[in-house]
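User: quick one, sequence for these tokens?
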């Protein structure tokens, strides 16, 4: 298979455009910040991450899968099972790995300080799904490469998973409104925007719930599922208690957030910003 970069970019642009249009036509929740300000800084962070990963990490997960296949490395290169079954199983296992990684980034303090940049967005919309600190992005890429090699994930499975992961991250962070019955039906299988919005609540017990990105089943299995925010979707406050200033959404501020000490205790159960 040829380099899938162009395919991934095309899928990214298509899904982003659809989600942005959906948000514009059918917004779920009123935004509290100026969209142009948030979007420009969130996109600047995406651009910076793309450059840093390209420079600092010589191979991506796709290339790692090719190398593993050529050398016979990893579980699925050592066992004989139908290719279609291994393909589906690998996508499911990669999604589980992302769930567990997400859970760990919430549980370990220094990792949480990195991941907190994602949660510090004062609104949640399609751009929030792409907003991560560069160090977290680099760690995530290295973890993904290690998992791909260990499992011997077929290259095509990596491409499918990365497209699903990017698309689902933009979808479930979208500020688009779904009919409640459709939301209830979809979240039996995949993570919906209403389900994931709980995860971005300022209430700490809600922040540390609903860790899934694509499949919703992991939160049910591991008892991290919370159906609705305490204050309801119209009133839920987005963000983290310790980062409440609008200027903290600037690119330079986001880059420094993991290294700054904030006054508010991150374990506070406060449900309002001060």
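Assistant:
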């Amino acid at each position: 298979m040829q380099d899938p970069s162009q395919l991934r970019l095309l899928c990214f642009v298509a899904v982003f455009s659809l989600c942005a249009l959906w948000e514009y036509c059918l917004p779920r929740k009123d935004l509290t910040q100026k969209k142009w300000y948030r979007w420009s800084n969130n996109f600047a962070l995406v651009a910076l991450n793309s450059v840093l990963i390209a420079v600092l990490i010589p191979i991506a997960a796709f290339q790692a899968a090719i190398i593993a296949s050529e050398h016979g490395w990893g579980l699925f290169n050592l066992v004989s099972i139908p290719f279609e079954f291994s393909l589906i199983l690998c996508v499911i296992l990669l999604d589980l790995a992302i769930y567990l990684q997400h859970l760990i980034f919430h549980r370990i303090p220094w990792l949480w300080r990195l991941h907190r940049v994602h949660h510090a967005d004062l609104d949640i919309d399609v751009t929030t799904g792409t907003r991560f600190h560069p160090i977290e992005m680099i760690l995530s890429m290295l973890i993904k490469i290690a998992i791909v090699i260990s499992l011997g994930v077929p290259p095509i499975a990596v491409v499918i998973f990365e497209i699903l992961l990017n698309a689902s991250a933009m979808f479930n962070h979208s500020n688009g409104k779904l009919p409640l019955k459709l939301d209830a039906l979809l979240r039996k299988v995949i993570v919906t925007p209403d389900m994931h919005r709980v995860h971005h609540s300022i209430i700490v017990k809600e922040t540390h719930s609903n860790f899934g990105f694509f499949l919703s089943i992991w939160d049910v299995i591991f008892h991290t599922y919370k159906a609705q925010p305490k204050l309801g979707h119209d009133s839920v406050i987005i963000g983290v208690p310790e980062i409440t200033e609008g200027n903290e959404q600037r690119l330079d501020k986001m880059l420094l957030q993991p290294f700054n000490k904030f006054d508010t205790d991150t374990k506070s159960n406060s449900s309002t910003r001060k």
